[in-house]
# Entry
Amino acid sequence: MSPALPPVLAVIGFAFLIITLTALARRLPVPTPILQVVAGLLVGLLPGSSLPALDPELVFLVFLPPILWSAAYGTSLREFKSNLRPISVLAVALVLATAVAVAVAARALLPGLPWAVALALGAIVSPPDAIAAEAIITRLPVPRRLISVLAGESLVNDASALILYRTAVLAAVTGYFSLGEAIVRFFIDAGIGILVGLFVGWLMLRAARITRDSLTEVLVGLLGPYVAWVSAESLHVSAVLACVAGGLYVRQRFSTAVTPLTRIQTRAVWNLLIFLLNAVIFIMLGVQFGELMAAVPGHALAAVARAGLAVSAVVIAVRLVWVPTLALLPRLTRPARRRGPPPHPRELFLLSWTSMRGIVSLAAAFALPLTLAGGAPFPRRAEIILITVTVIVVTLVLQGLTLAPLIRRLRFPPDDARNAEERFARAEALRLGLERLEDLSREPWAGTADVRRIREEFRDRIRRLQDGTDEGNDPWCRLRGAILDAERRGLIRLRNEDAISDEVLIELEQELDLEALRIGAGERR
# Structure
């Protein structure tokens, strides 16, 4: 086996690879996660490029908590609750159905495979990946309701899959299984895990209110998901739901718990962290696939590849059948007066097709025990890992590459609901601010000229909203953005002439950048 790269070279190589792929992804019609997987695959096949083995516990502890917490934090609780039924059907019932279907197929593909082990394989490949779906879907013109359902599913399906996975592995190792105990354990793990997450979220917000220091508050926010995960794992309950519940809880109260500076810094830190974690995950996925293929003999590799392709077809087919069936079945059983509008076939098909597998499946496969309780090797462990990696790569590449052209071909109508809500929220916030200004104008310290200037600014912004030329729309945005750019260039010139220091430039430039973000010109150079 090729020696592993020195840690420093590995880190430098990963950083260079991430930067290169990010630049390429902006110019190629290929989703970034797929480029990262392919790059990792090539790295794994290069002689002398072997990386340290992927530790499943490290993956679960380092990568999953912040990713799940961030996904929950960015999820609308209103949309989550309004779509609770389809989310539950996908995240719990579909996971169980997929696990059973894969178990039946695995028994046929791998003769002699115990049922418990086959069910463990089904649990491993049953949950679609939150990272892959979010990285691809959110950049495409998809109705917000579909994005909400997919995001909600990805928050919960990992929990149901991992609970089923642990139950099946325990049955395989000990030879003991009780359906009643498994069902009770599912609800206990889920319920206590949610309580742990809520408690950790409450502690985070209490700590943020006490510290009154923005950097400390950002650090507390970064520690929150890890505290929730470790606490839940220590109690042997669902750490996934602990992170999900904590992220949702903090999101609902974060706006009133910290200062604007903390919110800006938190957003920047978390965006960078999640970007790096996603990149490393997908590159490592490709590396592991390449190393596994190189380590398996040619004759065995062909058989495992066929099994992996067959299992991939099963997980895709089950979802393609399950989603429209469960969406249309209630309409056939309910009275006509209680039926809502029928789901559109385009939405059902896209929801059925979006089912890429990812890092949770990979980590669960590598976490399979080496031996049973009696000391015998765990049945078909190597084959299960290779089948899992095959399913991940097939679903990620096949479905990931076809999503963008598929969505363009489906031609979803424009979803203006979010834009309308945003305009309403801006106008209402401005109205309340103007009311507060009128109240404060009677205070002795409020200067008449200052009140008049702010009042005119607010009324002008309200007028632009009513005319449909609000912030973010041209030509007003272009004019204001050009003015801000001129101010920024003037400050840079003053710094270059030694008229002001870099500290002054940074402070004033931040004010200009925040204003550019407010008017929707934050991405213009």
About this structure: The chain has a mean pLDDT of 80. The first helix runs from residue 7 to 25. The two ends are 48 Å apart (CA to CA).
